[in-house]
Specification:
homodimer, mainly alpha, two-stranded antiparallel sheet, 7 helices, flat, disordered N terminus, DNA-binding, DNA-binding (chains A, B)
Chain lengths: ~220, ~220
DNA sequence: AACCCGGGCGACCATCGGACGCTGGTGCC
DNA sequence: GGCACCAGCGTCCGATGGTCGCCCGGGTT
């Protein structure tokens, strides 16, 4: 059934260097219209640039991708795909078969928690210990029942989360603006990128540098 | 023709945290009996442990490895394989068709330099910038004419280099001991591992932690 | 009901980190 | 010269990071 979560935004931060968050500490209402298991707080980021080095013969093999249309009942229970995100303003609950942005950001917090678990497990097994959210972390999340977390999604919105972490005020303003104008999630996502570039420039860093300065973004 | 290089061991260090080097600063004589191009100074390390996570069905497919026996003259010039290392004491020049350990350690310094070059190139191209010695760095080294540097070799001796960086005295003692006893390189290499474990334990860290504390080992 | 928009995420791919073991250089007899 | 030892490094492999685009959910008409 539907599931509503209430949590304070005054998150687990306990920041460290360069915390650009300004501190309005309202109570947020999250929601996943369908499931959910836990909730936390964290931040993230990374640009979508696809530079890649070693320019060479790029075989340029473009072939059709096929999907296994195995839509066979499965179990009858459990949604297949997450509801799409819509642009919501801070604290706003998404209506209908949609998810809001507070919920999106909470997924990043959850990933941070899963990373911590993976790190602890690795440590006590004497294995190599990741400092970033890796494939292994996504796998762990899935195995832990958080099937609604997946790599493509998290990577896709990472710089939106980053803006949220680095400057909540500006992030909130953007959300309200895009909601008001009735823009879709894709447009909002794009828009999140530019403030980050500006912030990086102001601090004389690249985007990655900005991420690394922030406790919660460092793991992305 | 043969090539001898003289350089001060008081290296480019300019350390930073936890520099365990004790500071005898003699003049070292390096040598690669056959080529060589430049020389620097740096340090490195990493254990050979093969933990790996996600224990699973390990397909265990063992198949014959084949080599391209293309020993065709090539050019007539240029050695194919590096001369093997022998255990030499500090400052000792390897005799005959052998290379000494000072030369081995210098290769790690060279790798550090190649990493810096790759980092600068990446930065000015706006590409992703490696913090570690990666495949790309080995590729760059090869392209830059340092064909005598290759990944398997560098990984193989990394913890020997680490010991050298973290405690030259002990490293030197070990070298002298193993040379005296006429042990082969493989035995010496193995022996380098244990002091590192002890050092890690003393500092309450794992091997990787020890590496990360040292300016020059961090890149491995 | 039918249509179309847009976005979730399965699955693909280049590349990586890591290591095995063949090949042949090297010293000894 | 012949042989046995042993180590250099070509080459392979599982897994990763990164992304494309198929497929379908969802709102609208």
């Amino acid at each position: 059934g539907d599931n509503t979560i209430i949590l304070s935004q005054n998150n687990t931060s306990a920041s460290f260097p360069l915390n650009l968050n300004s501190g309005t500490d309202p109570v947020l209402i999250l929601q996943n219209n369908g499931h959910l298991g836990n909730a936390v707080s964290a931040l993230m980021g990374l640009p979508d640039n696809n530079y890649s080095s070693d320019q060479q013969a790029k075989t340029l093999k473009k072939q059709k991708r096929r999907r296994n249309k195995d839509s066979t009942g499965e179990d009858g229970e459990g949604r297949q795909r997450e509801h799409p995100f819509i642009v919501t303003e801070p604290g706003e609950l998404a209506r209908g078969k949609k998810n809001g942005l507070d919920y999106l950001f909470d997924l990043y917090e959850q990933c941070g928690k899963f990373l911590l678990e993976v790190q602890h497990l690795a440590k006590e097994r004497g294995e190599k210990c990741p400092t970033k959210v890796t494939n292994q972390v996504f796998r762990h999340a899935k195995h832990s029942g958080a099937g609604y977390i997946n790599k493509p999604k998290m990577r896709h919105y990472v710089h939106c989360y980053a803006l949220h972490c680095l400057d909540v005020e500006q992030s909130n303003r953007l959300r309200r603006g895009y909601k008001e104008r009735g823009e879709n999630v894709g447009a909002w996502r794009q828009a999140c990128y530019y403030p980050l570039v500006t912030m990086a420039k102001e601090n004389g860093l690249d985007i990655e540098g900005v991420f690394n300065k922030h406790e919660k973004l460092r793991i992305w």
